[in-house]
Amino acid sequence: MDSKTFYELAKNYKNINAFAATCQSALETGNWTSKLWVLARNGAGIKASTAWRDGRNDYILISSPEYRDGKYVAQNSYFRAYNSAEEFLDDYALKIKNDYPHCTSDNVWGYFAGLYCGRWGKWATDHRYFEKLARKAFTLEGVLLSNGHLKRALVYAIDKNYLEPWQIEIAREASK
Asked: Which fold has domain 3-38+83-174?
């Protein structure tokens, strides 16, 4: 898997922002090289709840870094497993729709901000998650979008009040 292929697949889902989903997946999977992607086609670190596991859905047990009490620790967790990127994207799009309703499909920055406003809290425990997504976005901009797209999208996100001040500061810093 590579960013162009994933992005093209993600474009088929209306309620997600394909570029933001690609950035998130690239970040979560180490550019689709992680054990979680290779063994389970899980492109965003979606955990497998007890209900998921009891429903006879596929899952995998993997040790992953979690940010707890000011430090990163390895934690064994159950993650959802999929047979293909498309199967992952079907479930991911549903999860975004149901659990992260503030993710804006029209704007990458609003989408990233929406990952902090889920029904059960934010997507990741990593306190630097927004910063990492922003840096990944600027890395992938030249590959998938026209240059300047992210800066224009930031202006739009600010005008729409999608971002908190700390998120604006991080996005501006990442653009340098």
From this structure: Lysozyme (1.10.530)
